[in-house]
Every structure is written in C-alpha cells, then in structure tokens.
C-alpha cells in the first residue's frame, strides 16, 4: 500500500499524459522515417526517369548509319556538328554534368561525341580514348560489360569517385542485326538531394509536431477515469518493451502480454500491441537468422569463386615459345562451377591441354573439379601416356566418391614441333579441328567411359596430327546444350557453322564470337550450365 501511495504522488492524468506524448512522439518518428524513405525513393525514381528520358532523347539524335564512318575517317560533317550542338543544349538546359557517346574498348572509352563545350573541364573530341588515367579500371570493365551483355544494368548511382555524387544512365545503340554500335550515357549530379531531403524532413517534422500537439490537447480534454487506468497499463507495457523487455533467464526479447478487460477499443488496442510485439520479435529473430546465414553463404561463395578462378591458368603468353598460341575461358552458371581447363609443358617439346566437365554444378562440383585437375596434372607430369594417365585418374577419382559424381575429360599432349598429338577422351564432347584453310573437322577416334563412373574402365590412346595454322578447339556441353526461351538447343551444327564462317583465324576472337553467339541465341533464358572453351593453334 505504501508503494501505491508513492506511485500516486503525481496525478494519474499527468502520468498518462506524459506516456501518451511519448507514444505519440514514437509514432511521429515512425511516420517521419516512413515519409523520408518514401520521398527519397520517389526522388530517386524521378531522377532515374528524368535522366533515362534525356539519354533516350539524345540517342535518337545519333546518326547511327554514320558512326563507323566517323570513327574510321576521324572526319566530321554538318550532321556531326549538329549532334554535338544538340548534346550541348541538352546538357546545359537539363543541368547534366556530362552527356556523351562512346565505344568501350579494353583500353578505355573511345569518345564519339559529348555535350561538354570546348574549353570546359572534361571536353573531349572524336577519337579520344579515356583510359585508366581518367576512369578506374572497374568503370572501363563495367562499360565493356554494358556493351556486350544486354542484361547489364543501365542505371548507376555513385558517390565514391572523383566525379562526385552522380546518377548515370546508359543506352546501347544497335544496328539492324542487333549488334552493339555505340553507348549513349549521361551523368546528373545528385548533390541537391541531401539538402532537399533535409528540408523535407524539417517540413514533415513540423507537420507531425503540429498534429502531435493538437492531438494531445484534444485527447486530454476527454480523459476520464474510465480509460486512464487501462491506457496507463498499455503505455507502461509499451514503454517497457521499447526500453527493456529482455527475459533475464533466456536473454531474449519477450512479447507484451497486456491484460486489459474493458470490452472496447482499448482492449482491442492492448491485444493489437500483444500481437504486434510478438510479430516483431518473431520477425527480428527470423531476419537475424536469415541475414546471418545469407552473409555467411555469400562470403563463402565469394571466397570459393576467387579460389576457383585462381586455380585456372590465365597467363596465355609464353614469350620464349613461338610455336603455338593458346587461349581459354570459363563462365560458371553459378558462383562456382564444375568445368575446368588446364595447359602446361610436359617437357621441352610436348604441351598438354586438358578440359573437363563435372556432372554437377556449384560448390560440390567445384571441389570435385579441383581434385580432378590436380590429379590429372600430377599424372601427366609423371610422363605417363595419356591413356594410362586417364586410367589412373579414373581409379583415383572413383575412390571415396560417395556422391556418385563423374567428370567428362579430354587430355591431349601435343608435340609443338611436329603437330602430332596423342589424346584420350573420357566421354567428353567432340573435339573440333579448325583447319588453316577454314575447313571444320570433328576429331575421330576411340572414346572411353566418363571418369569416376566405373573403376574398372579402360581408356585407349589415339594419335592425330595437325598442320601449322590449324586450331584444336575444346569446349564443354554448356555451349551445344544452351537453351533459348523456346527450349531449343544451341547444338553442334550451329557451333561448327559459326566456326567455319569466322574470317579471322584467331583463337581469342573465335572464343569471343562463340560466346557472343550463345548469348544472342539464349537471349533472356538463364544460363543453366558452365561454359568453358580452350583453343590451341599451331603457329606457322
């Protein structure tokens, strides 16, 4: 009883008013936060819509049929001068930082036209190449990705570069065949967005404060003893939940259990608070668990991707050897894949090329791939014939293979002096020989069962020869089995036809053309399997 008298030294109305004000302030803060993010998102959307519209407008002004002519001749005409003038007008009238058109290359961005006037900072002319001395390498890589990948993002917001807080939009212009010709882009400053958001917060806060004062004033006029006590209970419990609502034994948040029996909206409010806090706690727990697990998985996958990429050789230059050239690439369907390639000298004259495709994808396939690659290289470097190396690799991979995984594998050892090569095929896709005269042939010979599929499997050695200028092209089934949205396969016929029609007898150009053609064929269909290629050319 003494504790109750001590509690009631301050009037219950005053206590209730104070608690109600706190609750109202919390609601106001929530409203302000929600309004802030809604307004911010609306501003971002407006910026994106505005700059996208400007880029589209600028793109329609480009005389697409003359782009190659301008680049080749480095000579301009009235149409080009008009385009630059219109770019300048669009940039100036719409407060753009930059408006430009370029062709991305590996060395940088090859300027076509821009809206920056002569004499101003950042003015460049037709044919200027802006390399890493002007743009970071990652921006150049992103520009090339935008140019070659139709699915690449075309809206960027950056606030870390020397150019400041910008929103950038891009449009890739294509010719009648759908090939990329030119990129039109624009940068718009977003420095004003912070001050605008600050003014908006002040404005919303003032309105919220005014509503808060009016609400409290009117509400206090109608207070009476029939609602003060139950509301006091609700406010006290809500305050406890916000400030300190942790079970001392379990160390966890505890949902409210407000027991108010008024038979009206106040009782419904108490029940709503109980449910709301229970839902919040459940959501927090689920979100914490899911977020933690997702971050752990993403971190592990990023590390696995780097590790797998580091395992594949990327140095295709052999400065002391001019007998051959080699190039390879691998694009995983997931963060990590089961495809791999390898190449290395066995001795002074013999060069080994290997390609494989594990039966699964993802981390398990990547682990099995790593084991296969290491096993094959070790056996070949022991100077075992390719058939014996394949047999020993099969036996080794069959052991402890409880998951029943297998790998298709092709091993060839090429004499770089004579062009004679010994090879062994364990269920891999047919190898293509691209002759110097442009003819395309399938390598024929004895094939064996897939590796890690049957421990007693035996493999036969084949011997073939290529002439100087010929190319050995290896690939995995991610190419012929690529699907388009109509569920049609890319197929070996399309692959061999493309190779035969390629004019430049170069490995890197061939691999790039095939990858571009596969992407064009699959269109919006997702990549379902790893895509790996390796080309070996016996130079003349």
TrEMBL record:
<feature type="domain" description="HAMP">
    <location>
        <begin position="225"/>
        <end position="285"/>
    </location>
</feature>
<dbReference type="InterPro" id="IPR001932">
    <property type="entry name" value="PPM-type_phosphatase-like_dom"/>
</dbReference>
<keyword id="KW-0472">Membrane</keyword>
<dbReference type="Pfam" id="PF07228">
    <property type="entry name" value="SpoIIE"/>
</dbReference>
<dbReference type="InterPro" id="IPR003660">
    <property type="entry name" value="HAMP_dom"/>
</dbReference>
<dbReference type="InterPro" id="IPR036457">
    <property type="entry name" value="PPM-type-like_dom_sf"/>
</dbReference>
<protein>
    <submittedName>
        <fullName>SpoIIE family protein phosphatase</fullName>
    </submittedName>
</protein>
<keyword id="KW-0378">Hydrolase</keyword>
<feature type="transmembrane region" description="Helical">
    <location>
        <begin position="200"/>
        <end position="222"/>
    </location>
</feature>
<dbReference type="InterPro" id="IPR052016">
    <property type="entry name" value="Bact_Sigma-Reg"/>
</dbReference>
<keyword id="KW-1133">Transmembrane helix</keyword>
<keyword id="KW-0812">Transmembrane</keyword>
<feature type="transmembrane region" description="Helical">
    <location>
        <begin position="21"/>
        <end position="39"/>
    </location>
</feature>
């Amino acid at each position: 009883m003494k504790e109750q008298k001590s509690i009631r030294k301050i009037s219950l109305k005053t206590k209730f008013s104070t608690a109600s004000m706190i609750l109202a302030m919390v609601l106001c803060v929530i409203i302000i936060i929600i309004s802030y993010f809604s307004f911010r998102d609306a501003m971002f959307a407006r910026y994106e819509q505005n700059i996208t519209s400007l880029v589209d407008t600028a793109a329609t002004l480009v005389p697409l049929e003359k782009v190659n002519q301008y680049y080749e001749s480095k000579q301009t005409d009235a149409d080009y001068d008009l385009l630059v003038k219109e770019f300048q007008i669009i940039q100036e009238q719409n407060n753009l930082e930059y408006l430009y058109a370029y062709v991305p290359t590996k060395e940088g961005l090859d300027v076509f036209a821009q809206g920056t006037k002569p004499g101003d900072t950042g003015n460049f002319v037709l044919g200027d190449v802006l390399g890493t001395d002007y743009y970071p390498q990652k921006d150049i890589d992103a520009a090339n990705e935008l140019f070659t990948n139709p699915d690449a993002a075309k809206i960027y917001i950056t606030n870390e570069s020397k150019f400041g807080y910008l929103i950038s939009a891009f449009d890739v212009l294509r010719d009648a065949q759908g090939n990329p010709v030119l990129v039109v882009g624009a940068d718009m400053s977003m420095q004003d967005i912070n001050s605008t958001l600050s003014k908006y917060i002040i404005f919303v806060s003032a309105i919220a404060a005014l509503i808060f004062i009016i609400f409290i004033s009117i509400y206090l006029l109608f207070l009476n003893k029939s609602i003060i006590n139950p509301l006091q209970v609700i406010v006290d419990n809500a305050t406890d939940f916000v400030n300190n609502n942790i079970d001392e034994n379990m160390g966890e948040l505890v949902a409210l259990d407000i027991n108010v029996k008024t038979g009206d909206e106040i009782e419904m409010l108490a029940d709503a608070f109980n449910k709301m806090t229970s839902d919040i706690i459940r959501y927090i727990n689920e979100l914490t668990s899911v977020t933690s697990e997702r971050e752990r998985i993403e971190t592990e996958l990023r590390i696995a991707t780097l590790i797998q990429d580091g395992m594949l050789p990327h140095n295709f230059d052999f400065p002391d050897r001019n007998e051959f050239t080699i190039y390879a690439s691998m694009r995983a369907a997931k963060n990590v894949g089961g495809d791999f390639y390898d190449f290395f000298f066995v001795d002074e004259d013999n060069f080994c090329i290997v390609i494989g495709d594990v039966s699964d994808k993802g981390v398990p396939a990547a682990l099995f791939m790593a084991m296969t690659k290491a096993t094959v290289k070790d056996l070949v470097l022991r100077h075992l014939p390719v058939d014996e190396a394949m047999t020993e690799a099969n036996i080794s991979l069959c052991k402890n293979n409880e998951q029943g995984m297998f790998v298709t594998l092709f091993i060839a050892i090429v004499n770089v002096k004579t062009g004679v090569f010994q090879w062994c095929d364990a269920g891999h896709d047919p190898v293509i020989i691209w002759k110097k005269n442009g003819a395309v042939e399938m390598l024929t010979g004895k094939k064996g069962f897939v590796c890690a599929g049957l421990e007693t499997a035996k493999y036969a050695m084949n011997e073939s020869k290529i002439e100087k200028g010929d190319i050995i092209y290896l690939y995995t089934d991610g190419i012929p089995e690529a699907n388009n949205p109509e569920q049609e396969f890319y197929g070996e016929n399309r692959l061999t036809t493309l190779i035969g029609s390629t004019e430049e007898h170069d490995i890197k150009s061939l691999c790039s053309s095939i990858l571009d053609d596969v992407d064009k064929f699959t269109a919006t269909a997702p990549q379902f399997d790893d895509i790996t290629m390796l080309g070996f050319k016996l130079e003349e």
